[in-house]
Amino acid sequence: MLYDHLVVRYGELSLKGKNRRHFENQLHETVKRKLRRFDNLKISKLFDRLVIELNGQPHEPVVGSLQDIFGIHSISPALRTENNLDEINKTALIALKDAMENTDKRTFKVTGKRSLKTFPVNSMQLNSEVGGYLLRNTENITVDVHNPDVEVKVEVKDTGTYISCQTFKGAGGLPIGVGGKAMLMLSGGIDSPVAGYLTMKRGVRIEGVHFHSPPFTSERAKQKVVDLTQELTRFSGGKIKLHVVPFTKIQQIIKDKIPASYSMTIMRRVMLKITEKLAEKNNALAIANGENLGQVASQTMQSMYAINEVTNLPILRPVITMDKLEIMDISQKIGTYEISIRPYEDCCTIFLPSAPKTKPKREKAIRFEQNIENLEELIEEAVQGVETIILEEGRSTETTFEELF
After folding, report:
1. Residues 196 and 273 in one domain
2. Boundary (domain end) residue, out of 101, 136, 169
3. Model's pTM, two decimal places?
4. How far apart are CA 13 and CA 71, in angstroms?
5. Does 61 lie in the same domain as 26?
6. Residue 268 annotated as binding?
7. Residue 9 is labelled as binding a ligand
8. Separation of alpha carbons 176 and 238, rounded Å
9. 37 labelled as ligand-binding?
10. Is residue 134 located within the same domain as residue 70?
11. Does residue 176 lie within any of the structural domains?
């Protein structure tokens, strides 16, 4: 195995001024948790990088795990050498030959970065010195500073010089934990898991909230949401809690007491009220959901206006302006699409009226809601009956549906 280190570069957190140290510490902790399954790795935190000593571990699976971590801009397998120009030249030649072996690549450029200011060669000189050495010691290879086949990155640090010829894209965004916590309304469809992923990309921890209405919705529908949450743990930096709300009683009352055209509006208002109470119990400062403007009756501007009134918490809607195909592309990339399309319906689908109001009036919604006696007691009963499932990447603390049947 050629490479002995990985160089992990930060994304936009490097621009965060006084918060930078906090952001870097959060990222460092997430990386340590994510990589704990690998033996013998040594993680070092430099000023503007993380450097991981592989100690014989193949770099490919480690890179794959790092690509799921928000806050990372890129990862490069690297060779470490001493801060000596002769050693740097020799090591750069090894790396370049490996990158071009058995390929049709024929051009390169050197990108030097001298963070160690006591090193006698500056960045521009480093480009020239290393580039000249590589040209003299190779055949049929030329320099292309604009569009090279291989970029030889030479980074001089106080811990040594790291040389890389290959770079893998990271997840970007901000490290999990720097943006507080939000409750994610997780239906089981395509949109809400993508919303959860994008919310986490901004550094926000999430806890899922799913409304379950047995016997109208099956255990398989619930298991689908458990599996979606499990998939999202890849990006969470740890565990995700899923709160399963018993919603049958409230839905039946809504069906009996509310005009059919307004039943979806009232149901969404009650869901928000319950989610807000769960946010208060779990120290969350916002609610996230997969609403997409104009996609269904409850997601028109008028519907959102009539529904949002019941909470003062910010409502994050990361997919609100996306086309359905854009959302599907992300869901396929993050591994939730095949789970989301399993044919098990959630409570919103089961109780969907034939002609839901697309432009409900807030005043009417408030008046119709008053038809439900003891609504606050019903909401509190649902909150008290919540089942909380804790999921962690690679395993669940709860028995899965397959184990039950």
Report:
1. yes
2. 169
3. 0.90
4. 7
5. yes
6. yes
7. no
8. 9
9. no
10. yes
11. no
Residue 174 falls inside a structural domain: no
Place of tokens 């997969």: 290
Q: What CATH number does the domain containing 227 carry?
A: 3.40.50.620
Of 169, 194, 220, which residue constitutes the final position of a domain? 169
Is 211 labelled a binding residue? Answer: yes
* Domains in the chain, number: 2
Q: How far apart are CA 128 and CA 7, in angstroms?
A: 23
Written as six digits, the tokens of 301 are 């501007």
Q: Could you give the CA distance from residue 358 to residue 147 in angstroms, rounded to a whole number?
A: 52
Residues 54 and 134 reside in one and the same domain: yes
The answer on whether 208 is annotated among ligand-binding residues is no
Domain residues for the domain of 92 are: 5-169
Using an 8 Å Cβ cutoff, are 212 and 63 in contact?
A: no
How do the pLDDT tens digits run along the chain, 405 residues long? Answer: 689 999 999 877 555 667 788 888 999 999 999 999 998 899 999 877 899 999 999 999 999 999 999 999 999 999 999 999 999 999 999 999 999 999 999 999 999 999 999 999 999 999 999 999 999 999 999 999 999 999 999 999 999 999 999 999 999 999 999 999 999 999 999 999 999 999 999 999 999 999 999 988 888 999 999 999 999 999 998 899 999 999 999 999 999 999 999 999 999 999 999 999 999 999 999 999 999 987 776 788 999 999 999 999 999 999 999 999 999 999 999 999 999 999 877 665 656 666 778 899 999 999 999 999 999 999 999 999 999 999 998 765 444 333 332
- The answer to whether the annotation marks 302 as part of a ligand binding site is no
- Confirm whether residue 35 is marked as ligand binding: no
